[in-house]
Amino acid sequence: MHKKANNIITIGASAGGIAAVSKLLSTFNEHLDASVFIVIHVFRNSLIEVILNQIQRQSPLKCMIPQDGDRIVCGHIYLAPADHHMTLEMDKILVRKGKLENHWRPSIDVLFQSAAMHYGSSVTGIILTGLLDDGTAGMKAIKKNGGMCIVQDPVEADFPDMPKNVLQHLLVDYQVPIADMSYIIVDLLSRQRRSGELTSPAELELKSESPPGLLTPFTCTDCGAALVKTDRDSGPRYQCQAGHIFTERTLLREQARSLENSLWVAVRMMEEQRALLSSISDQDVEVTTQQAGNLVIQIERLKKILASFECSEEQ
């Protein structure tokens, strides 16, 4: 009979996350008295089984991709499947589609918040390398419910955004390199943790309907619906009626991507029009040549703007 899990470890990573997670799991021993849940940001068509095999080679613990309704087993490692949120209830794992959170599915915040809600002070949250700020709200929920928070030292992280964002919004318990985390975890699991009052689901921001808030002039980059701004403990969030949620930094990034895509569409249409003008034989040659020349100028201007987008992303 499998041992029931009394301790929960949640791990979140994004860019550079596969190597970081593999390194961390290689330090866990086979007698770890906890269940481990991992979210790595991956695209919806990613071969998550390949990632699973890679981390399994680094760990003596059983690694698996859970199915909806699986029981939680102590000493097992659970990797969130692509394009699905992984959440926890008491003794049970839920794997559902759900809305995009911060433009990601699976979302680190969603896993961490559900763990905090159901397991309280028995949760240890870990944020590793990654871009932007998914995981910050989840770590605040864990801390609020009495759990422990560990972040990878940003100096060590390949992409320090996620650890830095947690540190900016939260007084964490440990800020350390990956190599030091296993010693801390073993020590934490040996202690009798204080159990506090668990925060309700509403306070942990897991509701799917649009919250009351200030209607903004901004639109959702996923579906085009109007966005409502709400102020939460983890900072301002923007949510549409469909339930898509963005932090300010994520919304800014997605707006830039949408604008860039629109500009490339404009460039393509102008180039098609220029080509059509050049092929028309029954029009005034001087007029069509002038029109085609104007389009070339406009196309070059747009391409310079698009080049500035690339420079901004590199910085």
What would your notes on this structure say?
The chain is of the alpha/beta class. The chain folds into two domains: 8-190, Rossmann fold; 209-315, no CATH class. 39% of the residues lie in helices and 20% in strands. It has helices at residues 17-25, 48-56, 108-119, 136-144, 161-169, 178-190, 248-279, 285-314, and strands spanning 8-13, 35-40, 62-64, 76-79, 85-89, 92-96, 123-127, 148-152, 174-176, 214-219, 226-232, 235-240, 245-247. A seven-stranded parallel beta sheet has the order 3-4-2-1-7-8-9, with helices on both faces. Helix 1 (17-25) packs parallel to helix 2 (48-56). The protein is elongated, with a radius of gyration of 24 Å. Residues 201-208 have low confidence and may be disordered.
List keywords for this structure.
single chain; 315 residues; alpha/beta; Rossmann fold; 2 domains; 7-stranded parallel sheet; 4-stranded antiparallel sheet; 8 helices; 39% helix; elongated
Helix content: 25-40%
User: Can you say what the CATH homologous superfamily of the largest domain is?
Assistant: Methylesterase CheB, C-terminal domain
Q: Give the radius of gyration.
A: 24 Å
SSE class? alpha/beta
Shape: elongated
